[in-house]
Amino acid sequence: MKPSLQFRLSQHLTLTPQLQQSIRLLQLSTVELNQEIDRLLMENPALEREDVEEGEAPAAPQPSGGSDASPPTEAPPAETDWSSDIAANWRGAEDEEGERSFSAPDTPTLRDHLHTQLSLTNLGARDRAFVALLIDALDDDGYLTQSLEEIAAMLPAEAEADPEDLSIALAHLQHFEPAGVGARSPGECLCLQLRNLPDQPVRALAIEVVEKHLELLAARDYSRLKALTGANDDALRAAQRLIRALNPRPGAAFAKVEARYVIPDVTVRKVKNVWRASLNADAMPRLRINRLYAEIAAGARSGGTLSTQLQEARWLIKNVQQRFETILRVSQAIVDRQRHFLEHGEVAMRPLVLREIAETLSLHESTISRVTTQKYMATPRGTFELKYFFGSHVATEAGGAASSTAIRALIKQLVAAEDAKAPLSDARISQILGEQGIVTMNRGSKA
């Protein structure tokens, strides 16, 4: 065959470090955000807190072009190498000797442990980015509780991510330690651990049980298990012993038992008869570019380490600001719809779904889900997670809807006011709710 040259035009978008960082910061709680910023402050000398005095600013490295050069006063925008390793920008940084260092607590968390393993793989930048996102989506037990479709929907359209991309990333994650991490169900978790064990005759039977008949094993329905698997008593007992030796919560060993403090991201006050949400200044990290470092970077060779660190510092400052602006927008939209709750309490809570806020603010519903998770609002009635203001609804006779939170609060009031010697029956509570126009589906409905 005669060799020939052919040109082919194609488009391929990847998750840039800036976009990846923006997604990550949005889903972190305030405590986790400050921990992440503390780590980045240690890694990047171009970044500092605003409360650092000029005389206390960390020393910046000297430019390689010589000490005689006089750096300009203002630092122009720095260009950065967009082909750099996403995972390196995400979790770690390489020093001048080429050694990778990680800032981790004495007892690493599950995510620290997994990100360390990710940094040692030979995956491409795009696959690393997706695996990193899945790691951050795991719960404390190591389970992936969201579907791949839901996670793909959370990513911006320009990422061009689909469930198939995430499925490949999940396969990589499920090969990490501890065995069973990244599972979407207890059966899958146990199966991953079994497949990680040395091959033995009983392993195949144990895999069949956890994949197809885990509910029967939990119910101790050994007769049906033997009939469905064709195993005898001895084989089934051996498989059961093997399964019981597994860990259905692989991430639990990394969990820390410690007091958790809630820092409200937003405070709500009534100003001139209007409820207003405002950001909690104490929860907002105040960051800036180190002036001396910026001056030196401006005089250094373009595209070098100094310019890259300066650009990353600017990204972080911008992404942190965008995070809090989004939280404030979502919070004010919630306050506008739940002002009756602020005035009268739970009985006045109105039905609200994520989609309503998303449509109002022209944001994706998955973005609202991220913003309302582990973000807190301090109100005159207490401090609540933003998700508290959303919930299911109950139909009314007028064709409208009542919040299930309001219904529960009303039932609590009825029970608290009842005669202890003649408590209200479920039927009577349903009747009272019906008299107020709330449709109850059956005698036992109390929410």
Give a short synopsis of this structure.
The protein is α+β, with helices and mostly antiparallel strands and 447 residues long. It has helices at residues 17-27, 30-43, 86-91, 110-119, 125-136, 148-154, 163-173, 186-195, 201-212, 214-218, 222-229, 233-244, 291-299, 305-337, 339-344, 354-361, 365-371, 404-417, 426-435, and strands spanning 47-49, 93-94, 100-101, 266-271, 274-279, 287-289, 376-379, 382-385, 393-395, 401-403.
Q: Which descriptors apply to this entry?
A:
about 450 residues; alpha+beta; 4-stranded mixed sheet; two-stranded antiparallel ribbon; 10 strands; about 45% helix
Notes on the protein architecture:
The N and C termini lie far apart (75 Å). This protein is 46% helix and 8% strand. It is flat. The strands form 4 sheets. Strands 5-4-7-8 form a 4-stranded mixed beta sheet. Strands 1-6 form a two-stranded antiparallel sheet. Among the domains are: 186-249; 266-389, no CATH class; 393-435, no CATH class. It is built from 19 helices and 10 strands.
